[in-house]
Design goal:
The chain is mainly α and 507 residues long. The protein has three domains: 3-127, 3-Layer(aba) Sandwich (Rossmann fold); 136-313, Serine Threonine Protein Phosphatase 5, Tetratricopeptide repeat (Alpha Horseshoe); 340-506, DNA Cyclobutane Dipyrimidine Photolyase, subunit A, domain 3 (Orthogonal Bundle). The chain is built from 21 helices and seven strands. The protein has helices spanning 17-20, 45-64, 83-94, 107-117, 136-143, 151-162, 202-214, 231-249, 269-274, 279-291, 297-321, 340-343, 349-361, 366-380, 384-394, 400-411, 428-434, 455-466, 468-471, 478-485, 489-506; strands spanning 3-6, 28-32, 68-72, 98-102, 123-127, 166-167, 170-171.
Length: 507
C-alpha cells in the first residue's frame, strides 16, 4: 500500500508526522512550489529565497535517503502553481491509495485540503503537527469558558508539564517571570558578535538567481543572503547563539540600537517555523546552559518563555479564533498603510531604522515590531488587513498562525482585548528610553506638540481621545484618561490638529 506524502514549506523536518513512518521503498513524496504563494509584491526577496532554498535542500536530503521524490519548481513549465491541481495530478500519476499531509499551519490551506479530500478518489489524511508542545485539544481545554486569555498562566502550566527550570514543583530562583530584569539599554553600546556564515551550494545559488530575476520587483534586498537552509546549518546557528549571545540576551532583549538589527537575539524563529529546529531542543539547550553556569537565569528564562510560552500560546489562539480573527477590527481603522513602509522614506528615525533593517534583512526583533512599527500603525489607525498583509510578507519568519495573533491581538488590539489586557500604545518616551534612535531624528522627542514634536507624542493622545468610548472602561487605562482630562482645552485642540496634519501628510 503506497502513500503520497505532501511536504509543505513549513514541514521540513525528518520527524514531522507525515514522514515519521514513511516507507522509502513504497511511498512517494511530493513538493509543490506554488507561485500563488509568492505572487504579491510585498513578499520579501529573502523570504522567498529562504523558503525555496530550504525546501529544495530538504528534498535533496530525502532523495539521498532513498525516497521517491517528485519536486515541482516554480520555474517548471509543467507546474501550474496551484496546489490542489498538482496534488490531483500526482495522485493519478502515482496510483497511490492515500495522501498523507501534516496539518498546515494556516487556516485557509487546511480548509482547501479538506475541500479537496471530498473531490479526490483517495483519502487525504491530515495528521496533527505534533512538533508543537501543546496540541490543539489541550489548548482548547485550557481556553474553555475564558473571555480572554493571558499567556503568563499558560506558560506556568507548560513549565510544570515539561519540568523546565523547575525544582520541587516550584520555579528555579523562586519567580516564574524575570522580565523586570530584561529592560536595560546598553548606554555604552555593544560589542557586535559575528554571526555564523553559511557557504552557499549550487541549490541555494540557483534559487538566489531565480528570485533576483523572477521577483525583481518584490520588496526587500536579495543581496547578502545568509539564512541557514539545512538542518545542520540551523543547529549551528542555535549553538552559536547559546554559547555567545544568550548570556547577554536577557537584559538587553528589549533594547534597540541604530545599525544593530541582531543585537543578542537568536534569530531562530524562521528555523522553528519551517521545521529545521524543534522547540524542545532549543529549550533544553538553553536550560542546560543555565545549569552549567554559562548563562544567567534571566536570559535563559526569557528565551524559554518566548518558545515554551508565547509561541505555543499564540498558535493555540490562532486556531481557536480563526477564521473570524482575520477580520477583527475593534477600533474600526481604515487608513491605508503609509507608502514609507515600503521605501523607508520618512523623517521619523525610529521608523526609518526599523523599516530599513526589515528591507535589508527580512528581520526585526520583537520590540521593533511591537513598540515601534506596530505602535505607530495602531496610533495612526491603519487598517488591520493592510498591517497584517505587510507583516506577513516582509519577515522571513512570518507564518499566518504566528503573525496574525501577534499583530491583530498584541500590536493593534484589534480583537478588543482577547489577547492583551490593554492596547500596547506609547508615546516617544518609551522609544527614547529603549533606543538611541531619537538622537538622530528630525523630530524632538521632548516636544509634545507642534511641528518639531515627535509624532508619537501627539498621536498617542489623539488615539486615547478618539477611542475613548471603546477603551475607557478598561481599568488599566483609567489613569491615562484622568491625565488626558486634566489637560487644558487648547492643548487637546493642538493634539487633534497636529495629528490631523501629520496623518493627512502621510496618507
Amino acid at each position: 500500500m503506497s502513500n503520497l506524502i505532501l511536504i509543505l514549506p513549513e514541514h521540513l523536518s525528518r520527524t514531522v508526522s507525515s514522514l515519521r513512518s514513511a516507507n522509502p521503498k513504497e511511498d512517494f513524496v511530493i513538493f509543490i512550489e506554488c507561485s500563488k504563494d509568492w505572487s504579491t509584491a510585498n513578499n520579501h526577496k529573502k523570504k522567498i529565497i529562504y523558503s525555496l532554498a530550504s525546501m529544495r535542500q530538504f528534498a535533496a536530503d530525502l532523495v539521498k535517503e532513498g525516497f521517491k521524490v517528485e519536486y515541482l519548481k516554480i520555474e517548471d513549465k509543467k507546474n501550474s502553481g496551484i496546489l490542489e491541481l498538482e496534488l490531483e495530478l500526482a495522485v493519478k500519476k502515482t496510483g497511490c491509495e492515500k495522501v498523507v499531509i501534516t496539518k498546515p499551519g494556516d487556516y485557509k490551506t487546511a480548509k482547501r485540503l479538506r475541500e479537496l479530500s471530498q473531490r479526490l478518489s483517495v483519502e487525504i489524511k491530515l495528521l496533527e503537527d505534533d512538533r508543537f508542545l501543546c496540541d490543539e485539544k489541550s489548548f482548547n481545554f485550557y481556553a474553555k469558558d475564558k473571555n480572554n486569555l493571558r499567556m503568563e498562566f499558560f506558560y506556568r502550566n507548560m513549565r510544570k508539564k515539561f519540568g523546565i527550570l523547575m525544582e520541587s514543583g516550584k520555579p528555579v530562583g523562586g519567580k516564574w517571570n524575570l522580565d523586570a530584569e530584561n529592560r536595560k539599554f546598553p548606554r555604552g553600546g555593544i560589542e557586535s558578535i559575528p554571526r555564523v556564515q553559511h557557504a552557499q551550494d549550487q541549490i541555494t545559488k540557483g534559487v538566489i538567481r531565480l528570485v533576483k530575476k523572477s521577483f525583481a520587483k518584490n520588496f526587500g534586498d536579495a543581496e547578502d543572503f545568509n539564512f541557514a537552509v539545512t538542518r545542520t546549518e540551523a543547529v549551528a546557528v542555535l549553538e552559536h547563539f547559546i554559547q555567545n549571545c544568550l548570556p547577554s540576551f536577557g537584559e538587553y532583549q528589549d533594547a534597540m540600537l541604530a545599525g544593530e538589527n541582531e543585537m543578542f537575539h537568536s534569530q531562530i524563529g524562521l528555523y522553528l517555523n519551517n521545521g529545521l529546529l524543534t522547540p524542545l531542543e532549543c529549550i533544553q539547550m538553553a536550560e542546560k546552559s543555565f545549569y552549567a553556569g554559562l548563562a544567567p537565569l534571566n536570559s535563559v528564562e526569557g528565551f524559554i518563555r518566548q518558545i515554551l510560552g508565547w509561541r505555543e500560546f499564540i498558535r493555540g489562539v490562532y486556531w481557536i479564533k480563526m477564521p473570524d480573527y482575520a477580520e477583527a477590527n475593534f477600533f474600526e481603522c481604515d487608513r491605508p498603510l503609509p507608502q514609507f513602509f515600503w521605501d523607508g522614506n520618512t523623517n521619523m528615525n525610529c521608523l526609518k531604522q526599523c523599516i530599513s533593517e526589515t528591507k535589508r534583512h527580512a528581520y526585526a526583533h520583537h520590540i521593533q515590531r511591537l513598540m515601534v512599527l506596530g505602535n505607530f500603525l495602531l496610533l495612526s489607525g491603519v487598517s488591520p488587513a493592510d498591517v497584517n498583509n505587510w507583516f506577513l510578507g516582509v519577515y522571513a519568519d512570518a507564518h499566518e498562525w504566528v503573525e496574525l495573533p501577534n499583530v491583530t491581538g498584541m500590536a493593534l488590539f484589534a480583537d478588543g482585548g482577547y489577547l492583551a489586557s490593554k492596547p500596547y500604545a506609547a508615546g516617544g518616551a518609551y522609544i527614547n528610553k529603549m533606543s538611541d534612535y531619537c538622537k538622530s531624528c528630525a523630530y524632538n522627542v521632548k516636544e509634545k506638540v507642534g511641528e518639531d514634536a515627535c509624532p508619537f507624542n501627539y498621536l498617542y493622545w489623539d488615539f486615547i481621545s478618539r477611542n475613548r468610548e471603546k477603551i475607557s472602561a478598561n481599568q488599566r487605562m483609567s489613569m491615562i484618561f484622568r491625565t488626558y482630562d486634566k489637560m487644558p482645552a487648547d492643548r487637546k485642540k493642538q493634539i487633534a490638529s497636529d495629528s490631523r496634519r501629520f496623518l493627512d501628510k502621510i496618507a
